[in-house]
Amino acid sequence: MENGTVKSFKLRGSRITDAQTAARQRLWPTFGIDYESKDLIFPDHFPGLSTFTMEIGFGMGEATVEIAKAFPEVGFLAVDVHQPGIGKLLAMVEENVLRNIRVMDEDAHLILQNMISDNSLDSIHLFFPDPWPKTRHHKRRIVNERFIELISGKLKENGVIHIATDWLPYARWIQDQFETASKFSGGVVDRPDWRPLTRFEGQGIRKDHHVTDMSYRKV
Ligand SMILES: C[S@@+](CC[C@H](N)C(=O)[O-])C[C@H]1O[C@@H](n2cnc3c(N)ncnc32)[C@H](O)[C@@H]1O
């Protein structure tokens, strides 16, 4: 169920700073998890915790850190392929002395398919996924029927995916995709108090974009 050769991300050219490179080199052995085709044992990486959230596409990781500080009882598996963000998040995990974030650098589809056991996630955070506005790029949108099928196996019963987007046509697309998914119920919700403003969201708001939050529970 790999997303084929069509990727939901485009590696951005933004330069990685020396500090981000240094953080990556120094902190990856402590807070990073290498991709391998083997089930990840959550308690091995989050000793003492039993509630686990996967964040797909953390960007620069500011929201990840705020949420992890607010929920120390939850283990957060933070996934992205954006190299400056990976360095930045690792540095913030150290600065904030956080024990409940682990970082992965790989396509979330591969991680979900090959490393996440069935019924192991309490929730998934998908904040401001790339909207791919052009029709010819819609096939790159991460939320599609196959993605929904994939996450439905990985979430525990009653597990939740929370999605936010500032692109109204994508919000409608997401609702349409979940409408036909019998394993989920939910829809548009008020912005939850626990979701901090993300970097990408701030950019959208400055362009007067309307933000839609959606929550779907596995039934
Ligand atoms: C538009 S940015 C939003 C970042 C952040 N959540 C925010 O709101 O500021 C989307 C992020 O998702 C990441 N991404 C997209 N598809 C991904 C995938 N299949 N696996 C891992 N990361 C992905 C991109 O690299 C990018 O950093």
Helix coverage percent? 25-40%
Q: Strands across the major sheet, in which order?
A: 3-2-1-4-5-7-6
Low-confidence stretches are none
Summed up, the domain count is 1
Q: What is the architecture at the second tier of CATH? A: 3-Layer(aba) Sandwich
The distinct bound ligands, ions and cofactors come out as:
S-adenosylmethionine
Q: What structural class do the secondary elements suggest?
A: alpha/beta
- The ordered string of helix (H) and strand (E) elements is HHEHEHEHEHEHEHE
Which CATH first-tier class would you pick? Alpha Beta
Could you give me the name of the CATH homologous superfamily? Answer: Vaccinia Virus protein VP39
Largest sheet: 7 strands, mixed
CATH fold-level assignment? Rossmann fold
**Topology, number of strands:** 7
Radius of gyration (Å): 16 Å
Average pLDDT level: 95
Shape from CA axes?
globular
Q: Helix count, per DSSP?
A: 8
What is the strand content? 15-25%
End-to-end Cα distance, whole Å, is: 22 Å
Keywords summarizing the entry:
7-stranded mixed sheet, binds S-adenosylmethionine, about 220 residues, alpha/beta, Rossmann fold, single chain
Please explain how this structure is put together:
- This protein is an alpha/beta fold and 219 residues long.
- It has helices spanning 18-31, 42-45, 62-70, 83-95, 108-115, 145-154, 168-179, 199-206; strands at 51-56, 74-79, 101-104, 121-127, 155-165, 184-189, 212-218.
- A seven-stranded mixed beta sheet has the order 3-2-1-4-5-7-6, with helices on both faces.
- Strand 4 (121-127), helix 6 and strand 5 form a beta-alpha-beta unit.
- Helix 1 crosses helix 4.
- The model has no long low-confidence stretch (mean pLDDT 95).
- The protein binds S-adenosylmethionine.
- S-adenosylmethionine binds at residues 8-9, 56-59, 79-82, 85, 107-109, 127-130, 142, 198-201.
